[in-house]
Amino acid sequence: MTWQLNDLQTLLAEHDGWSVAEAGESLCLTNEDGIEAFLAVAGEQILVEALLFPQDAVKDVSGLNDTILRTHKMFPLSTIGINEIGGDSYYTAFGSLSSQSKAETVVIEVATLFRNIEAFLELYQDYL
User: Fold this and answer.
1) Mean pLDDT across the chain, nearest whole number?
2) Residues 6 or more apart in contact with residue 77 via CB below 8 angstroms
């Protein structure tokens, strides 16, 4: 089965502590701590992503980038990238999986991303 957005919305809304809302061609997921992530289905892939912080808020971009490259592998199923939004650069945390993944795998991916976001923010706090 290939996941469709409406099926994912139903699946993820069943998780205690998460709210799920349509956001254009994606879903906006909010956990019990108020962290927002966006989920989209694109062909063979499901992508779930959240903003961490703007690059402008970083005191030492080079130092942070070096630290991220040395530490991101400590966090399962998630990685960090930089995206441009409205002309500004933001650090993002994201994970991706097959659009044919089992329901349990999709929930694990989203839950892990939420946990990793908190850990990323704590670990990289000294650079902000």
Assistant:
1) 96
2) 95, 108, 109, 112, 113, 116
Tell me: the pLDDT tens digits for 50-88?
999 999 999 999 999 999 999 989 999 999 999 999 999
| pLDDT, position 120 | 96
Which residues pair with residue 26 across a beta bridge?
23
Nearest to 48 by CA among 75, 28, 32, 68: 28
Q: State the CATH class of domain 5-127.
A: alpha beta
The rounded distance, in Å, linking the Cα atoms of 49 and 36 is 9
Smallest CA-to-CA distance from 49 within 58, 57, 40 is with 40
Structural domain boundaries in the chain: 5-127
| Sheet strand arrangement including 45-54 | 19-23, 26-30, 36-42, 45-54, 88-98, 79-85
